[in-house]
Amino acid sequence: MQWLKKPTIIETVRLNRLLWFGHVQRMEGNGIPKRVLCMNLGTTRLRGRPRNRWQDEVREDGRIVGGDGWQEKVHNREKWKKLLRTATNRHTGTFVL
């Protein structure tokens, strides 16, 4: 019997988060999603260990998937699609999370 190699839930969430991030970063103008992504609420955080923000998770996902130069590839749609396609294909055992 042959085992199917499917991406885990965590890998799927990471890749979808990066897909959405790339989509919003390439938006032109000052649309609502881009404004919300860049918004700073200016509130104080609670005591204790700080909770991860969405931007922190995207930064970590990008580092895992694309190494150091992943941020420059966001604005070039073809390079971005190739990077995410490569990450999707690596889920067969070499995609380390």
Explain this structure to me?
The chain has 97 residues and is mostly helical. It has one domain. The protein is 56% helix and 0% strand. The chain is built from 5 helices and no strands. The radius of gyration is 16 Å and the shape is globular. The C terminus is likely disordered.
Question: Concise description?
Answer:
The protein is mainly alpha-helical and 97 residues long. The protein is built from five helices and no strands.
Helix-strand layout with pairing:
Layout: H1 9-25, H2 32-38, H3 54-66, H4 70-73, H5 77-89
Helix pairs in contact: 1-3, 1-5
Keywords:
56% helix, mainly alpha, 97 residues, globular, 5 helices
> Approximately what portion of the residues adopt beta-strand conformation?
under 5%
User: Mind telling me the C-alpha Rg?
Assistant: 16 Å
> Count of DSSP E strands?
0
Q: In total, how many domains does the architecture comprise?
A: 1
Order of helices and strands: HHHHH
Helix-and-strand structural type: mainly alpha
Biggest sheet, in brief? none
Query: Unreliable segments (pLDDT under 50, ≥5 consecutive)?
Result: 92-97
Arithmetic mean of pLDDT:
80
The proportion of residues forming helix, as a percent range, comes to: 55-70%
Provide a count of the helices: 5
Span of the ends, CA to CA:
27 Å
Based on Cα principal axes, name the global outline.
Answer: globular
